[in-house]
Specification:
The complex is a heterodimer of chains A (110) and B (226). Chain A is of the alpha+beta class and 110 residues long. In chain A, 52% of the residues lie in helices and 15% in strands. Chain A has a single domain, classed as Arc Repressor Mutant, subunit A (Orthogonal Bundle), CATH 1.10.10. The relative contact order of chain B is 0.12. Classes of the chains: A alpha+beta (110), B mainly alpha (226).
């Protein structure tokens, strides 16, 4: 099977979905990414990336019930698939190995 | 001052200008965040970013439509030349052609519009036959809406072009004495001067409106399973 690695943003999204569990929809996913990146994120770009991940079979989505504070619009919940989880673990393994190969470098002053 | 809701215009743009229809989950997320204290400026930025992303995706998805429409519109000067040659072989002295004003003008405008629309609709049919039978044989075609869209797009584009031409005094073919008898089909197709390109625009917009209507069914896959 062809092996494809996750992009930085895709990996962040999948990690956010794992962390949020049952509450993974647009608003908390975007907030999670903003908090850790330290800058604003366009929710439209989050959806675009999530749709790409869904088409690759790495996440699935389902609609919740409409709520009044959202103007009667439903939340779209995302969940990671087994394949998505496998991709995250594989990417983590590769990145960890690469980091371990770096000779006594702290990343400061680079 | 108490805020009642997100900026009306931005919300309206998101609802109506998103290609393929508004993403209600995204719209709901933006509304929820706004109610949680996000600013008007934040809401506007999010809407503009969402529209830019969706339009980029949509244009890329419809790249075959864009290429075909541009290629077909490039042929429109050849069609005009053929029509002019045809006019030279028709006797316009009969009573039907000698109407008093304003019917004389209506007749001329109607005839020239019909000739252009015939070219556009031929292009739509060619697209449907070639592209859709090759790639999407089971689609339900929205041909009626496509043809209506082409009329609306073409007429609007011609009206805009005439208004702009009147303002900037654009040269017409007759004004600088074009001798249609000396022009060749390949010569007019290969003419990509500014005015030649501008004359192709109504045709391009007409066919683009029609093909967009036909191709937009790709963005609503659920409706195809009816």
């Amino acid at each position: 099977m062809e092996r494809s690695y996750l992009g930085e943003f895709e990996l962040m999204l999948l990690l956010a979905i794992i962390r949020l569990g049952e509450e993974a929809y647009g608003v908390p996913i975007s907030r999670e990414i903003e908090q850790h990146r330290g800058r604003n994120v366009a929710i439209g770009s989050v959806y675009a990336a999530l749709e790409r991940l869904e088409s690759k079979g790495l996440v699935t989505s389902s609609l919740g019930d409409p709520t009044p504070e959202r103007g009667g619009k439903a939340k779209r919940y995302f969940r990671i698939t087994k394949e998505g989880l496998r991709h995250v673990q594989e990417t983590r393994r590769v990145l960890t190995r690469l980091w371990q190969k770096l000779p006594e470098w702290t990343g400061e002053g680079a | 001052m108490k805020r009642t809701g997100p900026p009306f215009l931005a919300a309206w743009m998101l609802e109506h200008w998103t290609p393929g229809g508004c993403d209600h989950a995204l719209a709901g997320d933006l509304q929820e965040s706004f109610r949680a204290g996000r600013s008007n400026e934040w809401y506007w930025r999010q809407v503009l970013a969402a529209l830019a992303i969706q339009w980029t995706k949509s244009l890329f998805r419809h790249r075959i439509v864009l290429i075909f429409a541009a290629a077909w519109a490039a042929l429109s000067p050849a069609w005009s030349l053929l029509i002019i040659r045809l006019h030279h072989s028709i006797d316009f002295t009969g009573p039907i052609w000698r109407q008093p004003w304003p019917w004389s003008t209506v007749l001329i405008i109607g005839l020239s519009t019909a000739e252009s629309l015939l070219f556009i609709w031929t292009g739509v049919l060619v697209y449907l036959v070639i592209v859709l039978t090759l790639f999407q044989t089971t689609n339900h075609w929205r041909i009626g809406r496509a043809f209506a869209a082409s009329v609306a797009g073409y007429v609007l584009a011609v009206a805009c072009e005439l208004a702009i031409a009147a303002m900037v005094a654009a040269p017409s073919s007759t004004a600088h004495g074009t001798d249609w008898g000396t022009l060749t089909l390949t010569g007019v197709i290969a003419d990509f001067s500014v005015w030649a390109i501008l004359r192709r625009l109504p045709c391009l917009i007409g066919i683009l409106c029609a093909l967009w209507e036909v191709a937009s069914i790709d963005e609503h896959p659920i409706t195809l399973v009816e």
